Amino acid sequence: MNSLNIQPEVGFDSKAFRRALGNFATGVTIMTAQNAQGEKVGVTANSFNSVSLDPALILWSIGKRSSSYAVFAEATHFAVNILSADQIDLSNKFARSKDDKYANVEFDLGAGNAPVLKECSAVFECERYDILEGGDHWIILGRVVNFQDNGRSPLLYHQGAYSSVLPHPSLNIKAASPAEIFPGRLYDNMYYLLTQAVRAYTNDYQPKQLASGFRTSEARMLLVLESKTATCKDDLLREVAMPLREVEQAAEILVRKGLLVDTGHSYELTEQGDQSAQMLYEIGENHQQDVFGHYSAEDKALFQKMLKELIGV
User: Fold this and answer.
1) In what order do the strands lie in the sheet with 122-134?
2) Is the N-terminal amide bond of 55 cis, ω within 30° of 0?
3) End-to-end CA distance of the chain
4) Which alpha helices (H) appear in the chain, and where do they start and end?
5) What's the rounded Cα separation, in Å, for the pair 297 and 284?
6) Which residues does the UniProt record annotate as the domain Flavin reductase like (predicted)?
7) Which domains does the chain have, with CATH numbers?
8) Which helix (H) or strand (E) holds 41?
9) Quick one: which of 103, 144, 167, 184 has the most CB atoms within 10 Å?
C-alpha cells in the first residue's frame, strides 16, 4: 500500500462538494468481514462499484479513521450485502457505532467466514484482492468468488435520504385505442377483457409494490392477514390464491423479519407486520385512486360489486 500526501486545494468547499456528490443516486450496502480471531465487523457504505468482469472485481472505500478498517485489512474475504428496499433499519443499525452490530441480526457465514446477511437484494462474497490509498479513505478491491441474486427491489440513497426504485414515467407506452387493442368480437369477450385489464393494472402497480421491498407473495400474505379474512392456515391458502410452497416460503421470510408469528394453527401479524401491511394498503389505495379517480363513486361501487359477485364474495 503506497501512501500519498495530497493536500486539499485552498478555498475548496468540502461540504458543498459532498452535497454535489449527493446528486448521484446509489444503492446501499453493508460490508461485512471476520478475521482469524473471530472479530466481526460491518459498515454501511454506498461507495460500492464494479471494476472488471474478467476477472470479476469490485471495489468500495472505508474512511481511514474507521475502527472497522483493521479487521477488513486482516480478513481474507469480505461480503458486499446490497440492501433491499425494506432494510432501512438494518442500514441504520450498521451505520452507527455500536459494540455488537450483529445482535438480533440473522446471517450465514460465507467465503472466508464473512457474514452474509439475510433477505438482501444481492450479495457478493469477495476475496480481498488489493488495498489502495485514496485520500482520506482506503479503497478495498475484492475478487468475487460467489454471489446471490435474490431479485429484491434495492434500497437507494440520494441527497442524504433513502429512496426506492420506480420505472421512469417516460417508459410508459401510450395506450392504443380500444379499437386497435380489441378488434372484432374479441372486444366483447369478457374473459379477454378481464385478463387484459389485470395485466394493464398490474403493469403500473407491481413496480410500486416491489419498491416497498416485498415480493408479491409476501405483500399478499401481509394484506390478507391484516384484513383478518383468514382465521387459520387453510383459510389463508384460499385467500392468497398461491401454491402452498409459495405461501410457506413467504411466511418463513416474514417470520424471520419479525413481521409474522407462527402459532401452529395460524399466522398472526406483529406490530411491525401490521405497519408494513398498512404501508402496502396505502400504496394500493393510491394506485387505485390514480386508475379510477375519474370515475364516479357510483361507477366504482358497481364495478366492485360485480367483481365481488364474480369471485363469490
Assistant:
1) 40-45, 29-34, 77-82, 122-134, 137-149, 57-63, 49-52
2) yes
3) 69
4) 14-21, 69-74, 88-95, 178-181, 190-210, 216-227, 233-240, 244-256, 271-292, 297-311
5) 18
6) 21-164
7) 20-161 (2.30.110.10), 212-311 (1.10.10.10)
8) strand 40-45
9) 144
Cell numbers linked to 123 = 450479495
Q: Which pairing describes strands 122-134 and 77-82: parallel, antiparallel, or unpaired?
A: antiparallel
Which residue type occupies 131? I
Contacts of 104 (CB under 8 A, 6+ apart): none
The DSSP symbol for 206 reads: H
The region that residue 312 occupies, defined by phi over 0 for left and psi between -120 and 50 for alpha, beta otherwise, is: left
Residue-by-residue pLDDT tens, the chain, 313 positions: 544 555 556 677 888 888 888 888 899 999 999 999 999 999 999 999 999 999 999 999 999 999 999 999 999 999 999 999 989 999 999 998 877 899 989 999 999 999 999 999 999 999 999 999 999 999 999 999 999 998 888 999 988 888 888 777 776 655 555 555 556 677 788 888 888 888 888 888 888 888 888 888 888 889 988 988 877 888 887 787 777 788 888 888 899 888 999 888 888 999 999 999 999 999 999 999 988 989 999 999 999 899 888 887 7
- 127 touches 58 (CB < 8 A): no
Residue 27 sits at φ, ψ, to 5 deg, of -80, 175
Backbone dihedral region of 133: left (phi > 0), alpha (psi from -120 to 50 degrees) or beta?
beta
Helix and strand counts by DSSP (H, E) for the chain = 10, 14
